[in-house]
Amino acid sequence: MEHIDEEELERYILKHACDEARIEEHLLVCHHCMDVLERLEDEIAVMKMALESSKTGKSARAGR
Ligand SMILES: [Zn+2]
Fold first, then answer.
1. Distance (Å) from CA 54 to ligand 1 centroid
2. CA neighbor of 18 nearest in space, from 38, 39, 10
3. 64 CA to middle of ligand 1, Å?
4. CA of 27 to the centre of ligand 1 (A)
5. Residue (of 4, 35, 30, 28) closest to 17 by Cα position
6. DSSP string spanning 3-56?
7. pLDDT tens per residue across span 1-38
8. How far is the CA of 18 from the centre of ligand 1 (A)?
9. Other C-beta atoms lying within 10 Å of the C-beta of residue 23
């Protein structure tokens, strides 16, 4: 089985994937890509937080 590449998974997370349905179907049956997706989601979340705190200039604490 061919796996989805990380770049494509990244686009999927950011909702820019061109074939979302195919990726979703693959994720249902492939734990490997699910793991990669989860790792990328974490990385993207961290990146976004860093981006936002640099935008505001203040050290925005991720509170509850
Ligand atoms: Zn896969």
1. 35
2. 10
3. 34
4. 7
5. 4
6. PPPHHHHHHHHTT--S-HHHHHHHHHH-HHHHHHHHHHHHHHHHHHHHHHHHHH
7. 799 999 999 999 999 998 999 999 999 999 999 999 99
8. 17
9. 19
Residue-level pLDDT at 42: 98
Ligand 1 center from residue 8 Cα (angstroms) = 12
What is the pLDDT, as a whole number, of residue 56?
A: 81
Looking at residue 59, its pLDDT comes to 56
Question: Alpha-carbon Rg of the chain, whole angstroms?
Answer: 15
Q: Are 8 and 36 in contact (CB under 8 A)?
A: no
Cα–ligand 1 centroid distance for 16 (angstroms) = 19
Model pTM score: 0.76
15: tokens are: 């909702």
pLDDT attached to residue 55: 85
